[in-house]
Design a protein that fits this description.
single chain, alpha+beta, 11 helices, 27 strands
């Protein structure tokens, strides 16, 4: 080997740098044409360049292997598991046993299958234990020859390895004997949190006496943690948990230790995104839910504040949240807003089984010039009804009250009766945290014309009135979209006088009540907490009952000319199914149906979930119902008309979608009813 002197080394380095700068190739980097392949040979104008697709046309080794694999016949199942197990475990085991992953493995042989079968009992025991069976007996029989159908299906592919008999006796199910909840952190000694501690323990104790399953145990722990972090302690966690199972007695004792961390309170409200509308207005809406600096952290208040911002109509999107972080200081409330346009025009097309096709036009002005009120104007045209109205409302004051006004004109044509009406209203309304209420004055004018009166040349009856009214409502459901339990009540009271030539006083009252009642104890097991929507419903099989009661009365002398818009009808999708909208009223001698002074409606509905595979619950429910309604001018004349039927409900994220087929007992006709969403 020859070494360069330092001076020569420097000169050689400079020559290399200059050569590279000029684009030359160093001598030690050049390829000898004599030893180089075709790709390294110097190109010349006389040498044709190789076609660009020649190399691409040659199949590579990977392509060859892929083509060979594609040419092989498809693999049919190499073995079959003939499982003898209770119905509730049969599909579950066939779906989750590890051995099933190898059914279509081409290279599987008898030796490997024997190894997999040796692991099957342990795998099956683990799976069965999640269903609450801890003493199962599992027997694996000798492999049986494959069936002729399996051999024929295999064709030229790998031959099937046979049928594997597997018998599973799960043994007695394990029952939860007790559930013990203990606490660490501030909640353990906080007197204000006593009710919260008791509620967590009460909900967890509902699991006692139930069959133990891993899903329900996980759900109970999750619900306890959510209940802990929903109020006062957003940094809470599960410190430890234990399921102590006694296989001999088929019982389980469950333990959970919750660490609450520090007691946290709300801090200042920080608004981001307020440009078109006053920042003070959005902060006022948030405060009206009870979310004020210094108050205890409460997830439900954050959710309510967010919903009220959206319901106000001023915002297309709203997010209200806190960032707990470490420590025990106040939590700033962050409000992020995306404001709605100042004006909006909405065209709607729809249909209903009550009124057929519907066309609507809606205009929204969120800040009227000069007064700053919000205006909602609507035009709606349907097969039997048409409506034009405009509603104006002021921004909320510090107590949550707002001024409201309404102008409305409507026309209804049904049951051989045409009713044309006008209405004006002015008053105040409050959307509270627990209940809503409103106080207002109302003017009504209505002209009623029957077909027989029209043929006789009579212009119909025109009546008008003015009333002072008070309305109050309260809802307490576990879920505002798809409730499982809870109740709601709404009451309206009004007093006033008729106008025109004959002026007589009258009173009007109306009430509605709706209740949901779960039918089995499993429905009481924890699945959600205030402020959070349930991620998984408890596995109730009996479902729930929904009971609805409605009543109305107009108290006046028999000769008092009360406008028809202050009287009552029944029937339709949301009233008595099996009858059309306003089919139930006071029947006249000519067959027309007019509104009456007294109304009574009752509805009982059984909503039962549909189970997809015997284990998991589908979003569909089956419904059976009985509806009844009566309308008359005297209480003694109330005669109920009944409808019975069945239906299918789909619990979508926006609310239930329901299709009902109802049979009207009196008219002896079937009627289809469609409804979307939950509305009280």
């Amino acid at each position: 080997m020859r070494f360069l002197s330092p001076a020569r080394h420097r000169r050689a380095a400079w020559r290399l740098v200059l050569a590279l700068a000029c684009g030359a190739t160093p001598a030690w980097a050049q390829v000898d044409p004599a030893t180089a392949g075709p790709a390294a040979a110097p190109a010349s104008p006389d040498t044709p360049a190789p076609a660009a697709d020649e190399d691409d046309a040659r199949p590579s080794g990977a392509d060859t292997r892929r083509a060979a694999r594609a040419a092989r016949p498809p693999v049919t199942p190499r073995f079959e598991i003939e499982l003898d197990a209770p119905e509730e475990l049969h599909a579950f085991l066939l779906r989750h046993l590890d051995i099933q992953r190898f059914r279509e493995q081409r290279s599987l042989d008898a030796t490997e299958l024997e190894r997999l079968l040796s692991e099957l009992p342990a795998n099956a025991r683990e799976l069965i234990a999640t269903r609450g069976y801890f003493a199962p007996r599992i027997e694996i029989g000798e492999p049986l020859p494959p069936t002729e159908a399996a051999l024929a299906a295999a064709g030229q592919g790998p031959a099937p390895l046979g049928r594997i008999p597997v018998r599973v006796d799960p043994g007695p199910p394990t029952t939860v004997q007790s559930v013990q909840i203990s606490f660490l952190g501030d909640i353990a000694s906080d007197a204000d949190a006593q009710a919260q501690r008791e509620e967590i323990q009460r909900e967890a104790a509902l699991l006692a006496g139930q069959r133990f399953t891993q899903d329900q145990w996980d759900r109970t722990k999750t619900a306890a943690l959510r209940r802990l972090t929903a109020q006062r302690y957003p940094g809470g966690r599960i410190s430890s948990s234990l399921a102590d199972v006694d296989g001999a007695s088929a019982s389980a004792r469950l333990y959970v230790e919750l660490d609450s961390g520090a007691h946290r309170r709300f801090g200042a409200i920080e608004i981001d995104g307020a440009q078109r509308y006053d920042r003070e207005m959005s902060e006022r809406i948030v405060r009206l839910t009870g979310l004020t600096p210094g108050s205890d952290y409460d997830l439900a208040l954050l959710q309510q504040a967010q919903q009220r911002l959206l319901d106000s109509g001023y915002y297309d999107a709203a997010f209200v949240y806190v960032e707990p972080g470490a420590g025990g200081g106040a939590l700033p409330v962050k409000v992020q807003l995306r404001e709605a346009m100042r004006q909006k025009l909405v065209l709607g097309i729809g249909a209903s089984t009550d009124n057929g096709a519907r066309l609507s036009l809606e205009h929204i002005h969120n800040r009227l010039p000069g007064i700053g009120w919000r205006a909602l104007s609507t035009l709606r045209f349907e097969r039997q009804d048409s409506l034009a109205k405009t509603e104006w409302s002021s921004p909320l004051d510090k107590e949550g009250w707002r001024w409201v006004s309404l102008l409305q004109a409507a026309k209804q044509d049904t049951n051989q009766v045409e009713t044309t009406s006008q209405r004006a209203r002015f008053g105040r309304a409050q959307d509270g945290v627990e209940y809503d209420r409103s106080v207002y004055l109302q003017y009504d004018r209505a002209r009623t014309l029957t077909d027989s009166e029209r043929l006789s040349g009579i212009k119909g009856r025109i009546e008008s009135s003015v009333t002072a009214n008070y309305a109050w409502s309260r809802e307490r459901f576990d879920d505002p979209i798809s409730p499982n339990r809870g109740h709601a009540l709404a009451v309206e009271l009004g007093v006033g006088s008729t106008l025109g030539i004959t002026r007589k006083p009258f009173g009007r009252t109306q009430a509605r009540w709706l209740g949901y009642f779960p039918l089995d104890r499993e429905a009481e097991l924890p699945s959600t907490v205030p402020g959070e929507r349930a991620t998984a419903r408890p596995p109730t099989r009996l479902g729930r009952l929904a009971l609805r009661l409605e009543g109305g009365a107009v108290i006046a002398e028999r000769s008092t000319p009360v406008p028809d818009t202050q009287l009552f009808y029944a029937g339709g999708d949301a009233s008595v199914r099996g009858y059309g909208l306003r089919d139930i009223g006071v029947v006249q001698p000519d067959g027309s149906v007019l509104a009456g002074r007294y109304k009574a409606v009752v509805s009982l509905e059984w909503q039962r979930p549909i189970w997809g595979d015997g284990v998991s619950r589908s979003p569909f429910e089956h419904v059976l119902f009985v509806d009844g309604g009566a309308v008359a001018n005297r209480v003694s004349e109330l005669d109920f008309l009944w409808g019975v039927g069945t239906g299918l409900r789909y619990n979508s994220p926006v609310g239930p979608l329901q299709v009902d087929i109802a049979y009207g007992v009196q008219p002896r006709k079937l009627r289809l009813h469609l409804s979307v969403g939950f509305v009280f």
